[in-house]
Amino acid sequence: MARVRECGYYDIIVIGCGIVGAAIARDLSRYALKIAVIDKSSDLPSGASRANSSMLHGGFDDEPGLLKAKLCAKGNRMYRPLSEELDFKIRDCGSFVCAKGAEEEKHIEKLYEQGKANGVIGLEIVSGDKLREKEPNAAPDITAALWCSSGAIVNNFEATLAFIDNACQNGASLFTETEVTGLLFDDAGANISGVSTNRGNFRAPIVINAAGTYTDVISRMAGDDSFKIYPTRGEYFIFDRSAGNLVTSFLFSCPSALGKGITVARTADDNLLIGPTSVRQTDREDTGTTIPGLDEAFEGAKRLVPRIPRNMSITTFAGVRANIDIGDFCIKAADKPRGFVNVAGIKSPGFTSAPAIAEYVAEIIKDSFGGIVKLEKNPTFNPERKHIPRFSELSNEERAELARKDPKWGQIVCRCESVTEAQVVEAVRRGARTVMGVKMWVRPGMGRCQGGFCSPMVVEILARELGLSPLEITRQGGNSKLLTGMTKSPLLPEELS
Known about the structure:
Helix content: 25-40%
Distance between the termini: 38 Å
């Protein structure tokens, strides 16, 4: 029998490096702990942390007493200082939940009362005319709206990367393309001793399950089938920046049993975003878009902002969120096996709640596993990190100074987003290994041409910096190779078959 590879011994393993797993790792890196973060994706963020509305919710949507009601309002308050420490983009835009007619007005009154009970600040019910003073492109038949001044929009890619980047700077270890295949236990089966993966065994007495749509699968490996995840796909449009000025705030429809409904917002980088739809599915990874789904998203958005120009759409995408059957976040330590913690069902407002969830999980570890690991302060913990300089936002003087020090800062790779070769090189240095990974870090391919100009240059830089052939570079890992051979190079007979 072949011996299983042992990949290392840790104090804590975090399964999943979405925004929640990344925030947990960063919070735990405050302590003198050896932490491993494991994610099966090739590049980060992936899953719902990549494909979502990027909204920081105020905290009025959930009934008082629910865990997510408590953690959402707290998480919202935490994000501003975190964005300063970790250097990711937030735009304070506020949000409106829009009502059309008496029945929907009753609903926003209920949301107002919930928000007050949850400690949300900056709530006010305004008339439709008052809404249109701020948002003149809003639909004329909106009769009233719930205004929340603490609503904001974040660059979700930057935020997720910032948390895990800072965690790794403070000693955590990140393992991508590493898929959990099982849990490991002590001889008696009473205690967690690690995880088995496609790369071998990782050992630790504490395992935190933050695996998104797979949390119920991982939980069943621990013998806990107390909840079930229902993968739910949501489809979105992204429009050119020229359409971004249609709104300044985040506009919601009145929510329904399916979710918060179709939204219209200007992103942190000034594009226009609309979506999502809500379709329950069995596939945990199907992020395909559909004509009916996109039509539904567009028509729903037009109910809020009728003048949205469909011909200015530059891309569409879909995300799969982890709806759970218990109606609340499931964040708890298992009685058995000891050392296992579920962080499951983290759908909206999960992104907003992430930093508060991280603190909540740290308290669980202190209270439940103090005898397993000691949470002593990390004497070298540094809460600050800097993002790669955003060339498009620098002054001409700042650009010239960077180019003087390194000519790569003067070489434009992506015209749409003004991304330089130096930014791509630094993204690779910080862990990007795919075209999509570079895109998440510094935005080449996110503009009007969607990578038509810059993708070949990104492939070339990745190959050079990683010491690989361009033929080995992938879009997002796995078999997603972009190239099959050299142009004008004859194929061998066996390659033609």
